[in-house]
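Weekly structure sync, notes
Attendees: PL (lead), two postdocs, one rotation student
Agenda item 3: pending single-chain targets
PL asked that the sequence for the first pending target be pasted directly into the notes so everyone works from the same version. It is reproduced below exactly as submitted, 255 residues in total.
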Amino acid sequence: MSPAAHETDHGTLSVRWTDVGGLPVRSLVAGRRRAPEPEVVVVPGLGALGYLLDTVAGCGARTRSHLLDVPGFGHRGPRAPARIPALAGVVAGWLDAVADAPVVLVGHSTGAQVALRVAAEHPSAVASLVLLGPTFPPSLRGVPALVGAFLRTAPHERLRELPSVLPYYARGGPLALARMIRSGQRDEPEAVIERVSCPVLVVRGKHDACSPRSWTERLAAAAGGRAVTVPGAHAFPHGRGGLTSALIAGAPRSS
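Predicted structure, written out during the meeting:
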């Protein structure tokens, strides 16, 4: 833990603040380190934490697990820029400040793009990479195509997911959300993943048109990893913390 970090109770999770290059980064922590299990670090999509709480709690039953509040939509205060490269730099700095061994790095949606960059650029920090619902294949990098994919996916999402994400989106604001989406569309995960050296697991929801099966299989193949399809749509981790944490626990790791 860095000298600038502290913890307070937050239900079953604790809240921790860590200074990363002068930026206060908030994380939610579950469980404790149980050797030889590596710690788990989860990066959310579009800055929303609520739909991943049960996943992190499930991971915490095995080892210490962290849900990073980047860019910072979970609190009011200084925020990291809502762009994929900048967020990757914040996550890498957080790992350097907090983690004393390689971690299982997990990202969902745009968070998968952030986690992918961290694994490619900081290989010694990552024992295993898990990409959940990675977004923006080349076919969805234009606005009309993306809107169409969203409309095909939305009917398969659960209404009870909304309270777990809307407060974060409201706190972040439409401009920051738009910047992150556009940054994600400009990103090229298919090129970045070729530089990843750790084991990779890619997971998507069966009804997720934003992360189609052909895309997740392409990413997994590029890394020599494995692609899995599970029930649900894009926000499949919500309400399925046991399933998602079990997939994370079973992800292959570097020896």
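Discussion points:
- Residues 1-11 have pLDDT under 50 and may be disordered.
- The longest helix spans residues 84-98.
Action: rotation student to compare against the earlier draft before next sync.
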